[in-house]
Amino acid sequence: MTFASLDLNLEGPQRAHGEDDERVPISALQHYVYCPRQCALIHVEQTWEENLYTLRGRRAHERVELPEGIIREGVRVEYALPLWSERLGLVGRADVVEFPNDVPYPVEHKVGPRRARHADEVQLCAQALCLEEMLGVPVPEGALFYRASRRRREVVFTPKLRAEVERVVREVRALLRQKKLPPPVADARCRDCSLIESCLPFVPQALAALREQGGRP
Questions:
Q1: How far apart are CA 17 and CA 211, in angstroms?
Q2: pLDDT for the residue numbered 214
Q3: What is the C-alpha separation between 2 and 194, in angstroms, rounded?
């Protein structure tokens, strides 16, 4: 098989007229695994606020959004590639998909130092599942590219990770249907979250402590 034989139809999934469209953004999976409340604030409440980390992330993604694929060191590279899965009801976009030996290899760009974040692995694996359905070829692995260190961390799409992606898709879809905010996690994750002023994660704890002390909230 050659790259030219891969069907890169970028028109997106075709759905019957009137069919209920409950497609889940791939980015919502990453938000949900990191923090379900963050996912609901963004994808249900449509709340978004910028901070240093989100600005860096947006600029990093803008740098990889080129209009068409290129050949780099003999390897075909596609940027900002639209993704979808009819089976899972997913839709999104890959930062970069390389095709070494005509095998799709998704690469997700992240800001900050090289560190293991499981939420990022779930997001990347979801991209791989979409590519497998779109192109009809196996996608065994991909990579997370950290712009601060200019290094990659390879992610193997194991059966366990694939099963987790499918479970998270179901849970995110249920969250979007319910249109309710989960309780805040109120832990170390909140410190760097741009939505901390909208979420107010530590307020319930403060009110509970005040009640225990006999005060009035």
A1: 54
A2: 64
A3: 43
CA 83 to centroid of chain Cα atoms = 12
The residues with which 59 forms a beta bridge, in sequence order, are none
- Matching CATH number, 21-181, of 3.90.320.10, 3.40.50.300, 3.20.20.150, 3.30.160.20: 3.90.320.10
Quick one: which of 173, 167, 134 has its CA closest to 23? 173
Q: pLDDT tens, 175-203?
A: 999 988 888 888 888 887 888 888 887 76
For the stretch 77-117, pLDDT in tens is: 999 999 999 999 999 999 999 999 999 999 999 876 656 68
- DSSP characters for the chain? --GGGS---TT-----TT----PEEHHHHHHHHH-HHHHHHHHTS------HHHHHHHHHHHHH--SS-EEETTEEEEEEEEEEETTTTEEEEEEEEEEGGG--EEEEEE-SS----HHHHHHHHHHHHHHHHHHSS---EEEEEETTTTEEEEEE--HHHHHHHHHHHHHHHHHHHHT-PPPP--SGGGGG-TTHHHH-TTHHHHHHHHHHTT---
Residue 193 CA, chain-centre distance (Å), reads 16
Q: pTM here? A: 0.78
pLDDT attached to residue 1: 44
